[in-house]
Write a structure and sequence with these properties.
Length: 253
């Protein structure tokens, strides 16, 4: 019933999308906030504020269409290189988002999980992330993974270290390690790999996002900057995904 509602709402673009065959897991690199602001003569931080609103809109829509997982790249391990004022604004926006989420996620049935090395975040942010986790544990709706101080390489090194610790403690043997069991050591343990990766902002690179998990993801790039990203653009990404021929190294039957 919900699907019919959204199909009706989304007009022409929805015609190209088969809502019965959506990806289960969509990953998005939230890029282009700074350029969006610059084009308007605004400070970069203004782009991050509007980008946060866009995230709310897209996450809500993903829940409405029944997506199981949405994973977004919000702050990378490399983004600490940015001016302190910009980093502070992004952390403030995250705090605001977490506080709002704590009040609304139960009503909205959206599960939130913060993915990455959270140990370096402020105690306040860590505490808010833990509260979001605790509420999420009681919910069943779309799981929204927000990658924060996340780096794909750091994640793989962390996983390797955790595995090595298990070996040293005698809990496992090196020869026991498989691709499947290694996934259990990643920050994203328990989450299936994304079928579709979207990057707004015009760049065609991974920028250290989900290196392991995107081994067979379909990439969709668009010049649209993240603050301008819309449900219609998401539909274009779904339509492109549905036209792809996913072979996983095999041949088309
Ligand atoms: C993405 O937008 C947000 C973060 C990396 C935190 P950018 O800030 O990278 O925007 P551009 O790429 O400079 O336009
Ligand atoms: C990737 O965007 C990180 C996030 C969106 C959080 P960047 O803007 O940091 O990536 P580069 O610098 O263009 O590779
Ligand atoms: Mg960028």
């Amino acid at each position: 019933m919900k699907l019919a509602f959204w199909k009706k709402k989304s007009g022409g673009a929805a015609g190209q999308v088969d809502f019965g065959h959506l990806p289960r897991h969509v990953a998005i690199i939230l890029d282009g906030n700074g350029r969006w602001a610059k084009r308007r003569g605004l400070p970069r931080t203004a782009g991050h504020k509007v980008g946060a609103e866009t995230f709310r809109t897209i996450a809500t829509y993903c829940r409405d269409i029944g997506l199981d997982y949405l994973t977004v790249y919000a702050f990378s391990t490399e983004n600490w290189k940015r001016p302190a004022e910009e980093v502070d604004t992004i952390m403030d926006l995250l705090k605001k988002y977490m506080l709002e989420a704590i009040d609304t996620m139960e009503r909205d049935n959206v599960r939130l999980r913060f993915v990455g090395d959270l140990s370096v975040l402020s105690d306040e942010l860590k505490e808010l992330a833990a509260r979001c986790d605790a509420i999420s544990a009681k919910l069943t709706g779309c799981q929204c993974n927000i990658c924060l101080n996340y780096g794909g390489r750091a994640e793989i090194v962390h996983a390797a270290r955790e595995f090595a610790k298990d070996c040293t403690a005698g809990r496992v043997k090196p020869e026991d390690l498989t691709e499947k069991s290694f996934e259990g050591y990643l920050y994203t343990a328990g989450v299936p790999s994304p079928e579709l990766l979207i990057r707004p902002g015009g760049e065609q690179r991974l920028s250290n996002f989900l290196l392991w998990q995107c081994a067979y993801a379909e990439f969709y790039y668009t010049d649209v900057l993240w603050p301008d990203f819309t449900v219609e653009e998401l539909h274009r990404a779904f339509a492109a995904y549905q036209r792809r021929d996913r072979r996983f190294g095999g041949v088309k039957q």
